[in-house]
């Protein structure tokens, strides 16, 4: 009898969408989940995805199982997207890549790997971070702690605090870093700051674990947004990298992603891959093929890759525009407050600084659905609703 099982709490991010669906107001806005919408709030299927699917239908692909490590063409393409074409680590076969179930599944395989092969090491997560990071490491039985990341006073990076915490962490800790467009803050280290972070990571023998879920959404350029993990690879720091194609290729439900290990030599990469296959085999056996084929075609064909970059720039551009519009409306509404953080932050989100009771006011009074931490997803904001949103924010700051 399972009568003793208690109700699990709703997910703090996905629960927001559930509440939104129950609201019938015309003014309602779902700024909870980070999923790209067009300016008419329609989900967007990229043209390059449609083109890739057409190619797939014409070549009459079968539905056989993939190998445990996934589609070879995808694994090649995804390491290339991460490190850049012709990177020495790829040429020297020092990269172990396993296709997994989007970013989340890739993080989980990585977490299980840490639990098995780096036992007793602590994982350090940014404070704040994407909430699911905590679930993933907890469920994998891996201890995690937090390092300072966000400074409320400056609405920027708590750079000194971050370095202090990483220096104070025991040698050989695992440091989870957002590759770009930090979720939820929209605050990334500068290139100079990345240099100092890499120094500490190197001195302390830490293992960086990059979570790359928004490659393309920070700057609009897929290449530029891979700068941080490429910089660590340049410095020959061994690292783990989880990748997701949910946002940048709009493949949310296809679950396309990978876990990569950039290592010192090919022999280690071979052994690490074999152990990741062992982990994946017990978790889900082998990954889904459809989205991996799409990604491998788009990344692997120069003309489609160029077109993807354009569409990426268009999506990132829409968010940038609506960010600016929101900023302008906020200044119009209340010129006395410094709103510059809105346009300083990058990626899909704005971290508003609204407190939980103020967020409650946003939702109850203004029908704006957002996460309790004060994050809004600008990807869900049409430009004609920016004025409404600005007045809701200004009103809620009075609560
Ligand atoms: N990591 C971060 C920081 C995210 O924001 C997300 C999605 O929102 C993910 C990973 C993983 O998403 P998915 O499992 O859809 O790839
Ligand atoms: O908006 C976010 O931060 C993500 C979105 O299976 C998300 O949590 C939603 C569903 C999912 C993974 C990520």
From TrEMBL:
Pfam annotation, one family: Aminotran_1_2
InterPro entries, per the entry: Aminotransferase_I/II_large, Asp_trans, NHTrfase_class1_PyrdxlP-BS, PyrdxlP-dep_Trfase, PyrdxlP-dep_Trfase_major, PyrdxlP-dep_Trfase_small
Subunit: Homodimer.
UniProt-recorded name of the protein: Aspartate aminotransferase
Domain Aminotransferase class I/classII large, chain residue ranges per copy: 28-393
Catalytic activity line of the entry: L-aspartate + 2-oxoglutarate = oxaloacetate + L-glutamate
SUPFAM superfamilies in the cross-refs: PLP-dependent transferases
One GO BP annotation of this record: amino acid metabolic process
Keyword tags: Aminotransferase, Pyridoxal phosphate, Transferase
Family from the record: Belongs to the class-I pyridoxal-phosphate-dependent aminotransferase family.
Entry cofactors: pyridoxal 5'-phosphate
Enzyme kind, highest EC tier: transferase
PANTHER family recorded: ASPARTATE AMINOTRANSFERASE, ASPARTATE AMINOTRANSFERASE, CYTOPLASMIC
């Amino acid at each position: 009898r399972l009568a003793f099982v208690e109700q699990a709490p709703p997910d703090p991010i996905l629960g927001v969408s559930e509440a939104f669906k129950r609201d019938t107001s015309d003014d309602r806005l779902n700024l909870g989940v980070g999923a790209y919408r067009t300016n008419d709030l329609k989900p967007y299927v990229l043209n390059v995805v449609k083109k890739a699917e057409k190619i797939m239908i014409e070549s009459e692909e079968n539905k056989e199982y993939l190998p445990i490590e996934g589609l070879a063409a995808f694994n090649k393409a995804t390491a290339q997207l991460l490190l850049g074409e012709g990177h020495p680590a790829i040429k020297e076969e020092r990269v172990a890549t396993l296709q997994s179930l989007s970013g989340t599944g890739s993080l989980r395989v990585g977490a299980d790997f840490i639990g098995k092969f780096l036992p007793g090491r602590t994982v350090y997560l940014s404070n704040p971070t994407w909430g699911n990071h905590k679930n993933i490491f907890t469920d994998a039985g891996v201890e995690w702690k937090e390092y300072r990341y966000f400074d409320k006073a400056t609405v920027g990076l708590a750079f000194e605090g971050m370095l202090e915490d990483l220096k104070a962490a025991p040698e050989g800790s695992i440091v989870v870093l957002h590759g770009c467009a930090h979720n939820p803050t929209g605050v990334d280290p500068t290139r100079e700051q990345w240099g100092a972070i890499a120094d500490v990571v190197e001195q302390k023998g830490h293992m960086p674990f990059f979570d790359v879920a928004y490659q393309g959404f920070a700057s609009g350029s897929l290449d530029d947004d891979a700068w941080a993990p490429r910089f660590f690879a340049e410095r020959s720091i061994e690292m783990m990298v989880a990748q997701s194609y949910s946002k940048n290729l709009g493949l949310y439900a296809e679950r396309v992603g990978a876990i990569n290990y950039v290592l010192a030599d090919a022999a280690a990469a071979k052994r690490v891959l074999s152990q990741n296959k062992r982990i994946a085999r017990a978790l889900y056996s082998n990954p889904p093929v459809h989205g991996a084929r799409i990604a491998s075609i788009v990344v692997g064909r120069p003309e489609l890759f160029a077109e993807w970059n354009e569409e990426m720039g268009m999506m990132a551009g829409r968010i940038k525009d609506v960010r600016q519009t929101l900023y302008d409306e906020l200044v119009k509404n209340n010129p006395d407050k410094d709103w510059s953080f809105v346009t300083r932050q990058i990626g899909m989100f704005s971290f508003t600084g609204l407190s939980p009771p103020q967020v409650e006011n946003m939702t109850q009074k203004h029908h704006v659905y957002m996460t309790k931490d004060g994050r809004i997803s600008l990807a869900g904001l049409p430009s004609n609703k920016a004025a409404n949103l600005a007045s809701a924010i200004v009103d809620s700051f009075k609560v």
